[in-house]
Write a structure and sequence with these properties.
This protein has helices spanning 3-14, 36-44, 120-129, 162-170, 180-198, 213-224, 241-247, 251-257, 265-274, 281-287, 318-322, 325-331, 348-355, 365-370, 394-397, 399-413, 424-434; strands spanning 77-85, 88-97, 105-109, 134-139, 147-150, 206-211, 231-237, 261-262, 292-294, 305-307, 335-340, 375-377, 383-386. It is of the alpha/beta class and 448 residues long. The chain has one domain: Alpha/Beta hydrolase fold, catalytic domain (Rossmann fold), CATH 3.40.50. The strands form 2 sheets. Strands 1, 2, 3, 4, 5, 6, 7, 11, 12 and 13 form a 10-stranded mixed β-sheet that branches. A 3-stranded antiparallel β-sheet has the order 8-10-9. Helix 6 (213-224) packs across helix 12. The protein starts with a helix and ends in a 14-residue tail after the last helix.
Length: 448
Amino acid sequence: MSDLQKSFAKAKLAKFPPEAPMPESMSYSEDGEDSSSASSVSSTGTIIPSPTRQLFARASRRQSSQTSLTWTDFFDQELFLPEEVDNFHIIHHVYLTPPTESGPLFVMHHGAGSSGLSFASCAEEIRKILPKAGILSLDARSHGRTVVTTLDSKTDDEAPSTAAAAHSGFSGKAELDLSLDTLSRDLVHVIYQTQTRMGWEILPDIILVGHSLGGAVITDVAKKGELGPKLLAYAVFDVVEGSAMDALQSMEKYLSTRPTRFPSLLSGIEWHTRSRTIRNTTSARVSVPSLLYEESEPSDPSRPWVWRTNLSATKPFWENWFVGLSRKFLDARGGKLLLLAGTDRLDKELMIGQMQGMRFENPYRLSMIIRHRTYFSITGKYQLQVFPEAGHFVHEDQPVKTAQILADFYRRNDRSALVLPPKVADMQASAAMKKGTGATGGPTGHLR
């Protein structure tokens, strides 16, 4: 390079601003990816932008890990649906984004100890793919802001706080009933009550989606057929009968190891992400606040935030939730999707159901094929999807991928998209009309 060229290059470089510092927000991953990849990038002094990371954009409230997110960032409205049943007064709480035109309605049921906001991030992504789709995500009994009290202690409060819901749910005022039959009845009731409240003449086409306990509930509803032909399909997230029954043996030990209290709401969010219970920061920021509440007179003032749902108190119902789940999942009418975080969760009955229609001579070849990578199959009796990189909360860890799977699942089962062939008689009549003979007459069209 000549001296003239070097001088010209130095003059040009001098006009550029100094190198921008690495943003602090790069120290964690919003989409559930391993943060080690970000560390390796920063150590080399090279930043490679990608479409999903706006490295030099001004930090927004949604990007900051120091704040929680509210339901209004993900849903259009919330509903409180009062009901009196079996000497109880229940205020069912749901989050709703109504469908538009002829769009479907995804009805979400969370797992034990979680809430309707567990599906917030996934719901937002579904709407990006299917703008006409609606999302209905409920809080089950004694979860979130759904309140159960006896009739003699009934209040007029139509919008109870999370703390008020916690006190009513486990204070002994109302007997805790989280049996599968009760939760299934609640789900059907909430769907029809939402229809009434929204003034829908008929229900939209429905896709039931359930995670863990919620998977058992929506499968039970599908098997009973209480939604009739409006139920297009149902999707179960990371629960099968065999592995669920095995996991119950160690559930109490797990509950004894997790914190019982937190000094702040932020510390609760951080525990979920650091323990990798939830691997997506954005999802944790919206879902975790609904799992905790601040005691007005805490026994430990330094840690006033406690769990909203006492999972240990639900132990009498654990076995009832999952017994017979695999058979009901295979036998219920409608499209079926099973989304798992690992292939080891398939039990014998589901493995056989997946093998039916496949040409594998070795029944263990399926596990060999899908080990260590995402696998997709629509053969057999149901659609199987595996996300090996996700934890138990697959829809929170991988909301974008989960939403895409659900959108494709809906399209595959959408009856309105079916184009049926014409009847033979209609084809013959059409051909006769084209020849000018008429359907029943002679060449002039007169009756014979």
